[in-house]
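User:
Can I borrow your eye for a moment on a structure tokenisation matter? Would you put together a sequence-and-structure record for a protein of your own picking? Please set it down just below, with no commentary around it:
AI:
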Amino acid sequence: MNILLISFLACLVVALPSASAQKVKWCVKSQHELKKCQHLATKSPELECHLKSSVTECMTSIKTGDADAITVDAEHVYQAGLINYGLRPIIAENNKAVCSYAVALVKRDTDFSINDLKGKTSCHSCYQSPGGWTMPIGRLVAQNKIPWEGIDDMPLEKAVSQFFSSSCIPGISKAVYPNLCQACQGDCSCSDSEKYHGDGGAFQCLKSGHGQVAFMCYDEIPPSERQDYQLLCMDGSRKSIEEYGDCYLLKEPRHAVISRKDADSEQIYKVLKQIPDSDLFSSAAFGGKDLMFSDSPTELIELPKSMESFLYLREDYYEAMRALRAGNPPAPPQDGKIQWCTISHAEQLKCDSLQIPRMECQRALSVEECIKQIMRKEADALAVDGGQVHIGGECGLVPVMVEQSDQQSCNEGGEASSYYVVAVVRKGSGVTWKNLQRRKSCHTGLNRNAGWKVPESAICGKNPDCTLYNFFSKGCAPGADLQSNMCELCKGSEKAVGDDSKCKASSEERYYGYDGAFRCLAEKTGEVAFIKHNIVGDYTDGKGPAWAKDLKSEDFELICPELPETTVKHTDFGRCNLAKVPAHAVITREDARKDVVKVLKEAQANTDFQDKLFKSEGERNLLFSDSTKCLQEITQPFKEFLTQKYIDMIEKTYMTGQGKPDLVKACTM
């Protein structure tokens, strides 16, 4: 009997979840918040409360792992994302921001613009408030409207005092900056002791004539008086109050929960969702307001894993916060230099060896990271396939040059190059389109054109329960979750020890890209490869690299939906393919377009670079496809370049279980 009891208890101990593994350590910064947090912990037992003295101390605690999460305003989301913390927003409050739109309000009968503010008198809701200080001053410094070289030059407040002739900025030090309190009608505090404090006070300051411009939140402009006022727009124009959506300084992003980049954000979200909204978004019972969360949100929204502070805050707000700390942005370089983004050691070596004038090379971990770097102006360009052109376009990037594989089109012009996506099998394998399910698959990469988007569209269509993950038994799709079946067949770099490159979306993974997917099939690791139509011909009959020297083109065939029960020759791609899609293209930011095009045009016109630019040593398709004969300039918007038919095909794949790529979610929220 005792033995049975001991066995039962032992099983019970094993079955119980580990308390330490489940806990979410929430950082609170006051006794009132601690009291609320302890109450919430009674609703969700995995919640644990940790008291610190400030938001910055909480951020340090999260960085070191002593805490896991805290809700912060947009300014602290920016601070948390800096290198000394390295945190990211993981959950957003779905509510109206504290200051949805910060505006510059003026009387209708005046005639100056945002470019004429120097020497004017100004009214501000409060020092350090979003609508009265951080957003308007940050934006004006970021746009070089207020000159300030940074803290080494002088305090920002001094620069503002030298810019405006007089001001009312309640809450600023009257003793140190008397002219910033000169327009006030009280003690210049952000309290009832100052007549012009808050948004209402800033409006009254303007209305009474003590200031010529009021920096405040749009919502607080009295509706009954709006016809007498106008807004100053950043482009130098003026608009009516009703046109605020096209004429504001900045929008304040919503408050967000921040955590470490490697934190289990799903667990944090799950713990919070166990708590009723009536408890989560209510603070009155604990002696405060907006404790842990705002008192007004309707819900919490889990953010994509690709989300980071720059994507969450958007460029204008992010640059304004940077300007508040560092001063005016540096003038753009006049030398026309560009930074090319590479995604592997082999690409970096080729890029460096080209030594193209005014082109420098830098490394990122993946195409997705390159896209983020280009958005942040840390890099300028790279060549990607159509699926990635679409992702870049959704994130605001533009295609500027397209690969052309036909020499005659290079010489005479002509339509942009395109290629067929094909499904290749080994001859005699018995694999057809009809019996493809549960086979082993080889893909160029997750969310790549030929390797993922097109076959997903062809196989799954609009079936919401179908994904390539559950259609195939296992596969290699570099960039997929390492724990998933789509990384099972990947090889990595096959180092003896310390190989962390398995399933990475770069050439460090043996089966990455067109050549990698074909190699996966040729080595009989997989049973079908989704690749570009010319790959079989380019890699067989003695034309490929060392690993392919014995491959014969006649040993490979094509399968397709139109011929479900049979196979055709690999040269018959015109009638047996999954789709015809745009060629790879170079993507960049609109502001870098001119320099990127100029550098690449000069490089391919120079005989010193022509042979090297589209040739890869050791590996294939480094920087550009090896079949490229030239790059041709694109002037259409990304949607016209891709065509609506192709975009519809891509977006059809979003309806399956995988949904949108994570970066597209982050860019389009």
